């Protein structure tokens, strides 16, 4: 069927079902889900880019289709107090850490519509927070604030098997794995530090490798695509810091810090490794920080206005668009990214649930 015919049939179908989309995230009907599935099929079947916002206070994950950088709402799925969401590299599964339930919810991602469906749940430590999937899609990690641990899991399709835990510092909130599966790092909010780990690439098991101190209320963390540098926000210091990664041991060495807005939380790095983005929860803004890709040194670049209390944020895979969850205004802010200087231009907002803690993107 050619594009004109697809659009004609889609227009007829939208006329009858599109009013259902106006009822909000918590009231999606079977007709809505049917509409979204057929929409995916008529737009060309199993391909597309989708975003997911974990809204802890409203116990749901909001789903969106990304069209030219704009988020198109696709409804939501219920899950208990979602604190973070991670998607595997192939875009087939999403993993949600459920803070108050001490469990992980595994969702299958429909490749025609981008919709989530619950595949299974499993137990983890108390108060699970940030999570990540390794670059091969073989391992999943989540930090647990209650026992101050990282839970380790092996992934095989929809199955996810526990590999034990390893201790962190106090109050862990985020975890990151280097792209070559050699090292991992967890930020310790109340411990004011970063826990370092070596990683067994064959089993996914982490081994404690010391602590990098001096990061006040350490929050967001990310690693550049070369695996040479790590970056972490200091929520209590209003800075973002850079570190070299020892390529033999994984031990971090401080390079420098750059100012952010007030109380930075989530942190993301541009695919070119040239820019960092910090969600400043206390000053309702997003800081753009320039990265010297040769030395890892940081410098202040620009600031963009956000909604109230921004928390989770995510770049799309091309680095063309940034999405920020404004936890104080139940919206996701959409930005286009200037590829020369990293600056942000707002594309407006879209409704979401309460308390957006994390955003993930699936592309297939």
From the structure above, extract its key features:
disordered N terminus, single chain, Methylamine Dehydrogenase, Chain H, 28 strands, 4-stranded antiparallel beta sheet, 2 domains, globular, mainly beta, 364 residues
Structure description:
The chain has 364 residues and is mainly beta. It folds into two domains: 1-45, no CATH class; 46-363, 7 Propeller (Methylamine Dehydrogenase, Chain H), CATH 2.130.10.10. It has helices at 3-17, 30-42; strands at residues 49-55, 60-67, 70-78, 82-87, 93-98, 103-109, 116-123, 128-133, 139-144, 149-156, 159-167, 172-177, 183-188, 193-199, 206-213, 218-223, 229-234, 239-245, 252-259, 264-269, 275-280, 285-291, 298-305, 310-315, 321-326, 331-337, 344-351, 356-363. A four-stranded antiparallel sheet has the order 3-2-1-28, covered by helices on one side.
